[in-house]
Amino acid sequence: MTAISQPPMSTTLHPTRVARVVTLAFLLVNMVVVHAMFFLAGPPAYNVLGSIGRLLGLYLAFAMVVQLLLIARLPLLDRGFGMDHLTVWHRWTGFAIFWLAVLHPVVVLLGFATYSNVSFLSETVTLSRQMPVLLGMIAVAVMVVVVAFSVQAARKRLPYEVWHTVHLLLYAAILLAVLHQVYKGTSFTSNALTQIYWWGLWALAIGALLIGRLFLPLVRNARHRLRVAAVVPEPDNAVSVHITGRNLHLLPARAGQFFLWRFPGHNPWWQVNPFSLSAAPDGRSLRLTAKGVGTTSSGLRGLRAGTRVFAEGPYGALTASQRVRESTLLIAGGIGVTPIRALLEDPDLTDVVILYRVRDATKAVLIGELQNLAQARGARLHLLSGRTGPDNNPFAPANLATLVPDITERDVFICGPPPLTLAVLDTLRRLGVPKRQVHAELFRLAGG
């Protein structure tokens, strides 16, 4: 029998493509406008260093706007790229802000010192007596502290509460930077048009942040009044938490997505964890399943029915809306099975193969549900157990191609521990699976 390749699905309105076009257009247009503002500003700076410092200041301000939009968790970006990609961009944007925040005042002060023929330190002391300049210096100092505490080596040694509190200082730094711009910004105060553009850009970023991180979560939680309905122990020290509420059919959640969960009264407010939905939302209830590996996840077993739940989301791009082919391969590792199990319920996924990797088959979480769903849907389920080694590596290219011979014709959804996910991604690349057919998401949350 000759295998017939399936035609690719239409990707005209694919969320990733839309997000890429909008993001690229936003960055290009604004960078053009920023440079136009610089060259069309009033009288030139006192010397070359002053001009460079002014341009660095514009870059810094725009990078801060981009950072606010990244942590605002805009649905367009989240559904198009996934929060793991946004978190990586958040981190690199943060380091860019750090270096710009250091270089901008240093170059400006060097320019003034050269112009006035005084030492750098003397000029710094003189200008720090001006309130707008002092506000900018304090903002830079705060940014340096935040970045120092965000370096991986430092973060590993700090309690989450300390790191989170320090990270929140970034908002204070942004406020001080905005005040500094009000008094010292010259490139965007030369005429009414540039002022409207610049402050409109800041209003967009701050408005998106307040709506996405404060207003929308408060409104949704007030509307749905989520509470714990039941807590069910699962194999391998895992637990499923069933949650009910009002008007859950209005919650725009999809199989494969996750929420940031808080349990006020049971845990302190700062304890928040990203747990995926382990069942497709049905408009009546939600379910999360977590393995007890940390303080919050281990404490889920102690939840009582009726406990209030505060959820922020839904987030994540690991949904059926990402598919570009008719056939699907779902790959799960360990507790990463939770969004995969939910995706198995999505009717938009067809001709499904599931690979579930666990060390011990007797401790496979939700395996009974997977087997029942697979049977009901006519899907093929492979439970891959045992320690990984030379003689047992199902995700080696040859072995994976044997398990799923038509893998290049399928969308591949992956969720599992980072080592497993990265190994599978490498194998898919070697097998020639087109990148647009590969969908994976790692839970690496941005702070703020």
Give an overview of the whole structure:
The chain has 448 residues and is an alpha/beta fold. It has 3 domains: 15-221; 225-315, Elongation Factor Tu (Ef-tu), domain 3; 320-440, Rossmann fold, CATH 3.40.50.80. Helices cover 50% and strands 15% of the residues. The chain is built from 14 helices and 11 strands. The chain has helices at residues 15-40, 48-71, 75-81, 83-116, 120-127, 131-150, 152-155, 160-184, 192-224, 295-298, 337-343, 367-377, 397-403, 418-431; strands at 227-234, 238-244, 258-262, 273-276, 285-291, 310-315, 327-333, 350-357, 380-384, 410-415, 438-440. The strands form 3 sheets. Strands 9-8-7-10-11 form a 5-stranded parallel β-sheet, with helices on both faces. Helix 11 (337-343) links the parallel strand 7 (327-333) and strand 8. Helix 1 (15-40) packs across helix 3 (75-81) and helix 6 (131-150) runs antiparallel to helix 8 (160-184). The longest helix has 34 residues, at 83-116. The radius of gyration is 25 Å and the shape is elongated. The relative contact order is 0.10. Residues 1-8 have low confidence and may be disordered.
Number of helices: 14
What is the helix/strand order? Answer: HHHHHHHHHEEEEEHEEHEHEHEHE
Strand content: 5-15%
Contiguous uncertain segments of 5+ residues: 1-8
Helix-strand makeup class: alpha/beta
If you compute it from the alpha carbons, what radius of gyration comes out, rounded to the nearest whole angstrom? 25 Å
Mean pLDDT: 87
Large-scale geometry:
elongated
Q: What distance separates the N and C termini?
A: 56 Å
Taken together, the total number of domains comes to: 3
Total number of beta strands: 11
